[in-house]
Amino acid sequence: MQLASLLPLAALAVAAEYNPNIHSSWETLTPNAPPPSGALTVLTSSFGIAVSKITDEAELSSISAYESTVTLSSEEASSTEFSSSSEEPSSSSSEVAEATESPDLSKYLTVVSAKSDAALSLTLNDTVLVDSAGRIGSIVANRQFQFDGPPPQAGAIIAAGWSITQNGTLALGESDVFFQCLSGNFYNLYDQSLGEHCNAIRLQAVEFV
């Protein structure tokens, strides 16, 4: 297994605990595409995420070409449909559900790290991403990835639809591509590029040891 440098809690944190048995209207705020085939949508044991920069020039060119067609708008209510993962999008929810019945976690969590108090610790509850403080992973109107609530802040446009692909990366809908964008002296994460100060990345799921 590979060792990873975990994403710290402060990088995404913006409160009652999430209760998966209580349906909330914000859970319908999902991407317009299902998770990739075979993706994991439930993981009750805690895990972390680590940033993995995309460096392949051909893939970066493809991502850039797609992103140039995307108009950032506060009124958008769906995530990008681009997927550069090697996996094909699932054509039915049953294909994803089969992966959650008795999954071999070693296929999904191939990177490990020691857990620290500063590390972002997550669980995955039927495509809802929850941190250790009970906050919900969401995409807000400016396309930033953050944790808040529950419920997520009023500006949230996506609050469910998360999964872990068979490549061990965090996906939103069918896409596992995110963007790390410089804002002043620090970086924020987004599901769409905001311009030249952004790097295409993947978020690797990390097993705590």
TrEMBL record:
The keyword Secreted applies. Keywords: Cell wall, Secreted, Signal. InterPro entries: PIR1-like_C (IPR054508), Yeast_CWMannoprotein_PIR (IPR051153). It is found in: Secreted, Cell wall. Its main location: secreted. Belongs to the PIR protein family. This is CYFA0S04e05270g1_1.
